[in-house]
Amino acid sequence: MLRSVRIVAFAAVIACAACPAAFGQSSPSRLDTIVSKGTLRVGMTGDYRPFTFLSKETSKFEGFDVDMAEALGKALGVKVEFVHTSWPTLMADFEADKFDIATGGVSITLDRQKKGYFSTPIMREGKTPIARCGDVAKFQTIADIDKAGVHVIVNPGGTNERFARANLKSAQIEVYKDNVTIFDQIAAGKADLMMTDSSETLFQQKLHAGVLCSVHPDKPFDFAEKAIWMQRDQPLKEFVDQWLHISRETGDFKKIYAKYFN
Question: Which of 22, 55, 210, 233 is the most exposed, having the fewest neighbouring CB atoms within 10 Å of its CB?
């Protein structure tokens, strides 16, 4: 009997010794995997200027978050592989592990937080209207906008559509699928306004000078922050946060920001 107990105990020790955890080892972190594979997969929609835009002419991404992703890849010592997604499929693609991080004007939400980690915030802003310049005085408040006869246009599947549906009951809401040309609809008089992130309204105001105007971008209707959305991996989050901190202190972040927003 004693001999049998000793044999069982010895077998258990051998089995435990074969387990990496016995030596304080565990499976590689996502950060380790990214570095070892030499590739950082970055998901973005390519339809949200100035954060991300997929050029039909070059088939390449460009924009603020594209430059930021390239800078992060350089800090990691890996190449960046951009993965095209969309706002309606962003969550599903993230859960399917099609990319390591998602960026390109991604707002922090609690639903997204349930699925992964966010970096320290990159930008603080909120939803505000953009309308034809002659109509700015008409759309100062939600109450001004939420009236029968007001035509609000939104892109599908993101925080803009959710904000509009949560706050508007009387105004007409049109879902327009092309987030690149959606502002042309307002300029042409086919819609009255769009409520989107204040940074985007300022950029579109610059593109449509004298035609479209941002409505009180310094006092948005709500509070929001943009950040890098990462698969749930603590070492990766710590690296990204530290990289952001260093880039702010060295002025690298400021240079990229000034290229698109100043």
Answer: 210
Domain 126-214 belongs to what topology? Answer: D-Maltodextrin-Binding Protein; domain 2 (3.40.190)
Homologous superfamily in CATH for domain 30-122+227-261: Periplasmic binding protein-like II (3.40.190.10)
pLDDT tens-digit profile, the chain (262 residues): 444 444 444 444 444 444 444 444 578 999 999 999 999 999 999 999 999 999 999 999 999 999 999 999 999 999 999 999 999 999 999 999 999 999 999 999 999 999 999 999 999 999 999 999 999 999 999 999 999 999 999 999 889 999 999 999 999 999 999 988 999 999 999 999 999 999 999 999 999 999 999 999 999 999 999 999 999 999 999 999 999 999 999 999 999 999 998 7
Q: What is the pTM of this model?
A: 0.78
Sheet bearing 116-118, strands edge to edge? 79-84, 39-44, 101-102, 229-231, 116-118
